[in-house]
């Protein structure tokens, strides 16, 4: 009788243990399935971004893209040993570089044309003057105090626009003025801000050679003429070292 009770208890414990193992296995499988899908979705999102970004240059066949991914995951292809694939990837890179260079050249050309229009329009405004360097400016308010030196630290509010009127940067919109040593910014600012004093306001039209030249700077295309409205809030001599 005692043996029968022990056997019954053993069966119950075994049943509970088996159920627990099955539950753990099911949970592990679900997690593995979910994790696998999540990683696939992550990679797919990145891949979609790449495909979409390059669609104007190469209209990728998504079925073939997925086939390449599957073969790589299943160990059917090894880039380190497949010269044909490496050669194709090099051609893709060359095609993308050529397209990028062509686009940059077109943007630079357009920037020059837009800059010329901005200069012509700005010159029509009353009170506009031009320096020897080609900087155009219009003083709205001269300000007061000592003349600003290029070594001074200035605190300003400003709005910068492209020739088409699009704002690319504005401390006014952010509601936070900026402070910097004047000799650490573009030449057009260094020259322009010395034309006013503390409390002064000025409009600047800065040719590309006094701004960023042939460099593309984020939202600013290469060879861009830039328009700025600047208000000098404070001026202080640079701290002595």
List keywords for this structure.
single chain; 241 residues; seven-stranded antiparallel beta sheet; 5 helices; 48% helix
Shape: elongated
Percent of residues in helical segments?
A: 40-55%
Biggest sheet, in brief?
7 strands, antiparallel
Please tell me how large the radius of gyration is.
33 Å
SSE ordering? HHHEEEEHEHEE
Structural class: alpha+beta
SS element count, helices = 5
Mean pLDDT across the residues is: 89
Question: Percent of residues in beta strands?
Answer: 15-25%
- The overall strand count is 7
Distance between the termini: 97 Å
Low-confidence parts = none
Structure description:
This protein has 241 residues and is of the alpha+beta class. 48% of the residues lie in helices and 17% in strands. It contains 5 helices and 7 strands; from the N terminus they run H-H-H-E-E-E-E-H-E-H-E-E. Strands 1, 2, 3, 4, 5, 6 and 7 form a 7-stranded antiparallel β-sheet that branches. The chain is elongated.
């Amino acid at each position: 009788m005692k043996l029968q009770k022990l056997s019954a208890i053993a069966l119950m414990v075994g049943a509970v243990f088996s159920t627990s193992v099955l539950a753990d296995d099911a949970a592990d499988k679900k997690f593995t399935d979910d994790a696998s899908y999540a990683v696939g979705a992550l990679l797919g999102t990145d891949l979609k971004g790449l495909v979409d970004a390059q669609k104007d240059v190469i209209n990728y066949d998504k079925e073939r893209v997925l086939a390449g991914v599957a073969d790589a995951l299943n160990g059917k292809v090894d880039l380190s040993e497949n010269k044909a694939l490496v050669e194709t990837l090099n051609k893709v890179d060359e095609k993308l570089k050529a397209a990028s260079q062509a686009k940059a050249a077109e943007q630079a050309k357009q920037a020059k044309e837009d800059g010329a229009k901005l200069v012509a329009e700005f010159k029509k405004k009353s009170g506009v003057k031009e320096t020897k360097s080609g900087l155009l400016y219009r003083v709205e308010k001269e300000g007061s105090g000592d003349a600003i030196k290029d070594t001074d630290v200035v605190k300003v509010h400003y709005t910068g626009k492209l020739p088409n009127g699009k704002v690319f940067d504005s401390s006014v919109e952010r509601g936070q003025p900026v402070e910097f040593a004047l000799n650490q910014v573009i030449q057009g600012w260094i020259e322009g801000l010395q034309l006013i004093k503390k409390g002064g306001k000025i409009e600047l039209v800065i040719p590309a050679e006094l701004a960023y030249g042939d460099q593309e700077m984020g939202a600013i295309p290469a060879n861009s003429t830039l328009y700025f409205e600047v208000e000098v809030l404070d001026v202080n001599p640079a701290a002595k070292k």
